[in-house]
Amino acid sequence: MPRILIRSAKDPFLALSPEASLARNVFASNSGNMLFAEAVHKLLSVPGTEVISSGYVTDRVELSQLPETIEKINSEYDAFVIPLANAFRPSFRGQLQRLTRLIRRLDIPVVVVGVGAQAGSGAVELPESERDIATKFLSAVLDKSAKVGVRGEITRRCLASLGFGDEHIEVIGCPSLFAHGRDLTVTKKAAGLTEDSPIAANLTLSQVRVAKIINRATERYPNLIYVPQTIDELRMLLWGVPHSKLLDPEMPARLDHPLYRQNRMRFFLDPIVWHRFLAEREFAFGTRIHGNIAALSVGTPAYLLAFDSRTTELADYHAIPYASARKIAPDTDPAELYERADFGAFNSRQPEAFDHYLRFLEKNDLQHIHQPGNENPDFGERLAEINFPAGVGSPYVTGAEQTEQLLGRLRWLYGGPDADRERSFGAYQPEPFGPLPAPGIAPVVSAPAAKPAAAAPVGLGGRVKRHLRRTLHRFRG
Fold first, then answer.
1. Cβ–Cβ under 8 Å, residues 368 and 358
2. In CATH, 3-181+350-384 is 3.40.50
3. Distance of CA 325 to the CA centre of its chain
4. Residues 118, 387: Cα–Cα separation, whole Å
5. 226 with 264: CB under 8 angstroms?
6. Beta bridge mates, 112
7. Bridge-partner residues for 170, per DSSP?
8. How far is CA 424 from the centre of its chain?
């Protein structure tokens, strides 16, 4: 059975508690990362192929562990697929260097899906500090794939300045918008918003103008729910621990904010639960690109308030309605954004962008579920049967005085990020790329790990090792 290793936090079918998700930071500090990783996982899950989550182990491998990790990947997998977001940025440099070091020594195909640059909206090149590592990373990947998929035009321009032209780079947008098929359309459910309209809001905690819009909307729209995405916000919801950074007081990032006090916040740990919630909303808006894409991907109208290249290049590529967060008036009503939102271009763009994305995968010799004979309805059916945790709400669910006492006890019990890292009971610790499946049996997440296949002789090439492994599996079957 072909096996694909995918860079992702966890297997889509693994339900983790909020506490375990926080303790191991399984979504790499931003829950939006789950959306595009799971979308790629789903698309590659063709019958007869097993897709295995890396648990981000590939990002953390140290030099001392590198030979063993290389041997495992080369002998047990047929491809390594790497969904990425804005990876060309200073804070991701360490992970990118480790990935580059690993990729150079692999002898299987390596395909990067959706990588982006963090730069200004008019940028034509990466910041000088990022050029060398970006060049080394792309060179390593292109030695093992036909093309690299990037998020948008800004990234394409920046990489062209490094010598990577259209023969190396393909603009593919965000995989999250392709998870539900070619015929995705967004239609407004109502002529306009009313005070009773169910709304979802999202926010990057540096955008003060948009925070003011959300604060005013909180008063006017009692059915507005704020959807946070960062690990600090999850920590506040679970443990009542204040945000680690000093933020503008306008931000919904303090325990006395009305959205906390009124229990009007939901943090989602799994895409399917997030999607179900947004499918019941009439409108979503805010600065979080994946917060809005999550709504659009289930047909719910959304309006982006963009503030950097990460968001604008994706909005431009997919024709997502947006305005500049820096230029919008802080007294703007969400009803005005709803009125502005026109999805004609988005709906027209979707089939073309979808087909282009599939062609990119095919250029890289990746099979997908939209090819005739590769359909896999079991993926969605299996997800629907799993009891994933509900969205995490505010701790303010009883009287204010009693809740303050509860928060005090929780803060005492908690102990901070160090306690999270040292937590053993109830915390998720990914195995190295998950358990090996028993030969001829589809992997089941809750099942105990099967006995590993016999190791191939040391010194043989990866293709020979994989051939021996497949032969052994067929013999056992």
1. yes
2. yes
3. 23
4. 36
5. yes
6. 82
7. 149
8. 25
Tell me the two tokens of residue 359: 């062609």
pTM, two decimal places: 0.87
Q: What is the pLDDT of residue 147?
A: 98
Residue 465 identity? K
User: pLDDT tens across 310-326, in order?
Assistant: 899 999 999 999 999 99
pLDDT for the residue 443 = 31
d(CA 113, CA 44): 12
Res 244: pLDDT: 78
Q: How many residues does the chain have?
A: 477
What is the distance of C-alpha 113 from the center of its chain? 12
> Looking at the DSSP assignment, which residues form a beta bridge with residue 200?
225, 284
Q: Backbone phi, then psi, for 242, in 5-degree steps?
A: -60, 155
| Residue in this structure with the two tokens 């940028």, named with its chain if needed | 123
Closest CA to 211 of 196, 226, 191: 226
Residues of the chain with pLDDT under 70: 398-399, 401-402, 405, 409, 412, 416-429, 434-477
Number of H helices, E strands in the chain: 19, 11
Distances (CA, A) of 291 to 31, 218, 302, 303, 375: 9, 18, 9, 10, 28
> Residues 128-156: pLDDT tens digits?
999 999 999 999 999 999 999 999 999 99
Determine the pLDDT at residue 437.
Answer: 37
CATH architecture of the domain with range 199-342: 3-Layer(aba) Sandwich (3.40)
* Residue with tokens 């303790």, as numbered in its chain: 23
Q: Residue 80: CB partners within 8 Å, gap ≥ 6?
A: 4, 5, 6, 7, 58, 73, 103, 106, 108, 109, 110, 111
Question: Residue 427's pLDDT is what?
Answer: 61
Q: Which residue has the tokens 């299996």?
A: 382
Instruction: Specify burial of residue 105 (Cβ count, 10 A radius: 0-12, 13-18, 19+).
Output: middle
166 Cβ contact list (under 8 Å, min separation 6): 156
Q: How many CB atoms lie within 10 A of CB 274?
A: 28
- 327 residue type, one letter: K
Q: Which long-range contacts (CB under 8 A, 24 or more apart) does 378-382 make?
A: 379/42, 379/45, 380/42, 382/13
Ranges of each domain in the chain: 3-181+350-384, 199-342
